[in-house]
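Following the same procedure, sequence and fold were stored together, as reproduced here.

>
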Amino acid sequence: MEYRLLGRSGLKISTLTMGTMTFGGKGWAKTVGDLDVAEARRLVDMCVDAGVNLLDTADVYSQGVSEEILGEIIGGPRRSGVLIATKARFPMGSGPNDAGSSRYHLINACEASLRRLRTDVIDLFQLHEWDGQTPLEETMEALDTLVRQGKVRYIGCSNFSGWHIMKALGVSEREKRERFVSQQIHYTLEARDAENELLPISTDQGLGVLVWSPLAGGLLSGKHRRNQAAPEGTRQFAGWTEPPIRDENRLWNIVETLVSIAEERNVSAAQVALAWLIGRRAVTSVIIGGRTEAQFRDNLAAAELKLSDEERKRLDDVSLLPLLYPYWHQRNTAADRLGEADLELLGPHLAQ
């Protein structure tokens, strides 16, 4: 297992992170999985034994049950050497202040997560989604307070747009508050939208990148094929709608390329998709999840799979998205003055 620095921090995390949305199975999360403590313990042990040192959860996963299960598994002596990331922002009750990124909600949410996780400190506390109604000055001050109180070590965001991130970083700098060390985003061969703004920002501003749902809800696992119904037991079979598929023909072209490379290397298509992400320059760690030991065992093997330049080009070419404005104009007229961050998006297009 390789370990990479998380953004500008000195914290090293494994290139694979264990996701725990499948723990609990309460409410909407039951569609994803409903693992109990014993089942979850086996999977946590497998991942930690393989070198995974970051476990990612959120208060909203099964309305706190995911955190409770994780706390029961790694609470006490087992906590040493294992990093915990959790998230807050979504509703955790019916009250008017039971959601959002206000000082009131974030501090309450953090303290509730600490109790459920049976720990004194959260290693990475992330805003799960944007809140356009709470001033960022209030949000960043609350996060800064949690760090100074010793309840949180690092802070990050998830599912922010580019201008949201830059505004938050600007507030942190101006107010001398703790700044985000990372962002958690959706990024796959099928959904490369993050290359427009989010990856360039990470490169320019020194943010780590954690990738959620790296197999596009299982669409890139190789189980789903052109002109075939979703296999029983998969998220799509259960009606899961993320990520949205805007170009089905492009999706199946990507899947067919993944399967072709996988067959040539005698590995799974899922491993190839994960290895492509791990090899992206801006990506720090890829969050893997699942309901069975077989799924995790297969995903963990991706940490050792190195794709050739030719294989990466085949995947890049079949999944490349057309440039939006102003990027097509920059490709045509600014190629002589592009920086490292610009090339996160424009690099593959200049090679065509």
